[in-house]
Amino acid sequence: MSKSYNIAVIPGDGTGPEVVREGKKVLSAVAAKFGFKLNYEEFDFGGDRYLRTGEVLPDSASEQLKKFDSIFLGAIGHPDVKPGILEKGILLKLRFDLDQYINLRPIKLYPGVATPLKDKGPEHIDYVVVRENTGDLYTGIGGVSMKGTPHEVAVQNMVYTRMQVERCLRYAFEYTRKRKKKNTLALCGKTNVLTYVYDLWERAFHEIGKADYPEIIREYYHVDATCMWMVKNPEWFDVIVTGNMFGDIITDLGAITQGGMGIAAGGNINPEGVSMFEPIGGSAPKYTGKNVINPLASISCGALMLDHLGEEKAARAIENAIMDVTANKLKDMGAGRMGYSTTEVGDLVAERI
Ligand code: IPM
Ligand code: MN
Predict the structure, then answer these.
(1) CB atoms < 10 A from the CB of 6, how many?
(2) What confidence tens digit (pLDDT) does each residue in 321-352 have?
């Protein structure tokens, strides 16, 4: 019997459903070719549902989603909903409830895609950021007092446990080993100022590396310097591991160097549980329903998802098809400037599978 995977699909808001449709189109093509089955079940979580029902996420959602092999997400974010409600109530809540403690963000410049980095090409921009995804400033620990007065005080704490740091570092070391590129893992921190949190990261990094991954070269960069080198010498990097907040910031910098919103994909990974794959572009409300948005990020998410599910060959086939399309077909990666519609780009990639 052929293998089959149960996938929860959350098309979400704005252009989410349009890009998810193309992602699924390519996934179907690759599943047929490599002989496995994908069973989809859709969930309507997002801004529209919230405006209609007043409920951001039903209590049962996380438990329901835990039963799937993976989650395929479009976009969350609605122009009529105050910023923060959906992001916290859906995206961050699922990351925490499902303990998706890794945010995996490949930074890869595909051939034919323009980068704002001068004199850099696909041979220079190909690395992966492993961002810790459950701790740090994102835990919501802190508080506010005397709000609205001149004495207002606001505190938001950077929080890490040894366990959180260790499991993230182990994932990053394993990933670097499996990637077999430069065998180099760089810790991105701020040990000169954040002498508690990043001291914990640095000690754990070297202890674990020395004991269990002696063949992996360990490097360390402060976060501010990391930003400089990501622009000036991106070819230095293989895998970067960092905390949640620094990871959020540097991955957007990375995304723009790989061609931006239309391209960048990410995985929220629980190596022992259910993972969720999302294009990082957001819901792009002004392009909704126009069939002009670039679906390559969602299609890339499909590759990331299959790679995580163990269908590595199928994942590579998607990536190769994407690269053929970016190198030979698309004029530009921006909405409305690709020379093809959203559905046509999906067709082009699917045909190449
Ligand atoms: C990301 C996003 C989210 C984050 C927001 C939308 C909560 O920026 O996935 O990088 O900060 O993690
Ligand atoms: Mn972000």
Answers:
(1) 13
(2) 999 999 999 999 999 999 999 999 999 999 99
